[in-house]
Amino acid sequence: ETGVTQSPTHLIKTRGQQVTLRCSSQSGHNTVSWYQQALGQGPQFIFQYYREEENGRGNFPPRFSGLQFPNYSSELNVNALELDDSALYLCASSESGRGETQYFGPGTRLLVL
Amino acid sequence: KQEVTQIPAALSVPEGENLVLNCSFTDSAIYNLQWFRQDPGKGLTSLLLIQSSQREQTSGRLNASLDKSSGRSTLYIAASQPGDSATYLCAVKRAGSYQLTFGKGTKLSVIP
Predict the structure, then answer these.
(1) 3-state secondary structure string, chain A?
(2) Which residue in A46, A66, A90, A107 is deepest, having the highest Cβ count within 10 Å?
(3) What is the pLDDT of residues A62-101, one digit of tens each?
(4) Interface residue B64 vs chain A (CB under 8 A)
């Protein structure tokens, strides 16, 4: 059974650029959630996708957007990058998103200069 | 708005000691509570999940308890080892919500 994978592992961008992060969910999981973790903080919920539809969103601006594909992999897109977007971006998958254990990937470290 | 607090922020103990990590939350209408471990610069590893109807869960040397009415959970680690050194995060899922709300974590150092 393959766990949650994310790519790339590290990324450096400049302010104003756009970035796409990718996540492959664990086999059998149809729900993907994205979290942002700033240094020294707990992860903050960005949004969740269930069967290709966004079904929950945290307190993040519209320049944070996402997609989920038929194979349940997912992308997180961030437009007009700001310095404060520098963080570890974590993807988590679960069987249905309702309340069972969420399994996290290793994360993508984004640095915005 | 749900807020999750973890005390202490950091803890250093000698190897072999038993220890308790604390987590408190402001809204008792939770669906479940989950404890995670995070190694530096890495993702989260799920340790234990307690449903709102449960009082505790155990896995090996770990035991997590939940007192929903008082808004508290504890993670008990028995016979600590240097390999237990990591940041421990608790997260709650509110009933009817999709998101996990995390605390800032407790950074544990187990000294050989």
Answers:
(1) CCCCEEECCEEEECCCCCEEEEEECCCCCCEEEEEEECCCCCCEEEEEEECCEEEEECCCCCCEEEEECCCCCEEEEECCCCHHHCEEEEEEEECCCCCCCCEECCCEEEEEC
(2) A90
(3) 999 999 999 899 999 999 999 999 999 999 998 875 667 7
(4) no
